[in-house]
């Protein structure tokens, strides 16, 4: 079962360059969260700081009542065992076949014998749909397969927390849909706490339980998916709807002239909130909530047509591949 990660007042600089300041959020145990933000806002730095690869300049990261930022190297090494990390390129060793790549953490960090290792590697390779590809070298397989091999490797130590950096980079929309489905199915099976960094709006709108947005050196918002997808806050609205009108410019913030030019321009209405992606076999994730529940509980009227389809609702954004539906009502909540 996943663990909660509580981030308090986290600040990271490189020299005099502030990356983000005073980030406070809680990644709820066993839930899937997505972190968004324009390029260069420090999303990858945030993942690396969470796993202890980078040291923050201020703030705390609480996991199981221990502050990661205050741990000595030996204790940090122990806490790191809770994490599985999937880096952007899968970070596979090019000279090792997939079997040896996936077995690597088990050989490095455990005393398991080769028959135990074989059982675990085979199980994880099957889980990510790579059974039969054990003998292939990373250079012989597609980008999507490399990501899945990286994911199998991130899973072998049974992590409680899974950090995933841009799983969709370099993948076509269909493969992105498959990997998104895999995350939902995996979350149901292993119940870990997931944090996914992505630029893919379709992923952000349909996969997570929670969404965060880093912008202009701070956390603009973090909360349940329905909260951000119904938000009128200009930065959140612009980013989640992939619009040019709003405070975010080509190179981060727009200047006063650019914003003045936009005055009076009408924003398109918020698109409907799509149904969240569900498990392919119809089992329920522990973190899953009925569609529209957050809006109902918080007195928020979602955009018309919400919770009626699996389409992310943003123009030009592809529809998800089919998957089993639950018996949840698919009516609009108003
Ligand atoms: N080790 C480092 N030393 C110095 N600066 C760094 C280091 N790592 C990252 N940075 C800087 O931190 C900033 C944020 O980088 P990061 O890769 O986290 O952004 P990102 O939001 O993940 O971007 P993208 O969406 O383009 O992947 C960049 O300006 C980058 O150059």
From TrEMBL:
<feature type="compositionally biased region" description="Basic and acidic residues">
    <location>
        <begin position="282"/>
        <end position="296"/>
    </location>
</feature>
<keyword id="KW-0813">Transport</keyword>
<dbReference type="InterPro" id="IPR027417">
    <property type="entry name" value="P-loop_NTPase"/>
</dbReference>
<feature type="region of interest" description="Disordered">
    <location>
        <begin position="278"/>
        <end position="334"/>
    </location>
</feature>
<dbReference type="InterPro" id="IPR017871">
    <property type="entry name" value="ABC_transporter-like_CS"/>
</dbReference>
<feature type="domain" description="ABC transporter">
    <location>
        <begin position="5"/>
        <end position="241"/>
    </location>
</feature>
<dbReference type="InterPro" id="IPR003439">
    <property type="entry name" value="ABC_transporter-like_ATP-bd"/>
</dbReference>
<dbReference type="GO" id="GO:0005524">
    <property type="term" value="F:ATP binding"/>
</dbReference>
<dbReference type="Pfam" id="PF00005">
    <property type="entry name" value="ABC_tran"/>
</dbReference>
<dbReference type="GO" id="GO:0016887">
    <property type="term" value="F:ATP hydrolysis activity"/>
</dbReference>
<feature type="compositionally biased region" description="Basic and acidic residues">
    <location>
        <begin position="322"/>
        <end position="334"/>
    </location>
</feature>
<keyword id="KW-0547">Nucleotide-binding</keyword>
<protein>
    <submittedName>
        <fullName>Phospholipid/cholesterol/gamma-HCH transport system ATP-binding protein</fullName>
    </submittedName>
</protein>
<keyword id="KW-0067">ATP-binding</keyword>
<dbReference type="InterPro" id="IPR003593">
    <property type="entry name" value="AAA+_ATPase"/>
</dbReference>
């Amino acid at each position: 079962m996943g663990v909660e990660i509580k981030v308090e007042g986290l600040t990271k600089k490189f020299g005099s360059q502030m990356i983000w300041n005073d980030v406070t959020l809680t990644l709820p145990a066993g839930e899937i969260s997505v972190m968004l933000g324009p390029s260069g806002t420090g999303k990858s730095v945030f993942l690396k700081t969470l796993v202890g690869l980078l040291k923050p300049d201020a703030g705390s990261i609480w996991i199981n009542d221990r502050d990661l930022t205050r741990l000595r190297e030996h204790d940090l090494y122990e806490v790191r065992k809770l994490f599985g990390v999937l880096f952007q390129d899968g970070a596979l060793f090019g000279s090792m076949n997939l079997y040896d790549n996936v077995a690597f953490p088990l050989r490095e960090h455990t005393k398991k014998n080769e028959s135990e290792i074989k059982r675990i590697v085979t199980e994880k390779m099957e889980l990510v749909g790579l059974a039969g590809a054990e003998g292939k070298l990373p250079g012989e397989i597609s980008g999507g397969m490399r990501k899945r091999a990286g994911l199998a490797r991130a899973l072998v130590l049974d992590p409680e927390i899974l950090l995933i950096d841009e799983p969709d980079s370099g993948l076509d929309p269909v493969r992105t849909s498959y990997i998104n489905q895999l995350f939902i199915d995996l979350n149901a099976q292993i119940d870990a706490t997931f944090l996914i960094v992505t630029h893919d709006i379709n992923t952000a709108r349909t996969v997570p339980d929670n969404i965060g947005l880093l912008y202009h050196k701070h956390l603009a918002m973090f909360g349940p998916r329905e909260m951000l997808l119904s938000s009128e806050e200009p930065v959140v609205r612009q980013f989640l709807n992939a619009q040019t009108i709003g405070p975010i410019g080509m190179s981060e913030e727009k200047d006063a002239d650019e914003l003045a030019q936009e005055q009076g321009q009408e924003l398109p209405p918020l698109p409907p909130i799509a149904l969240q992606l569900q498990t392919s076999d119809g089992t329920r994730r522990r973190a899953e909530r009925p569609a529209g529940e957050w809006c109902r509980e918080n007195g928020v009227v979602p955009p018309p047509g919400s919770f009626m389809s699996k389409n992310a609702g943003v123009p030009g954004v592809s529809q998800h591949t089919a998957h089993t539906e639950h018996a949840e009502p698919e009516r609009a909540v108003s």
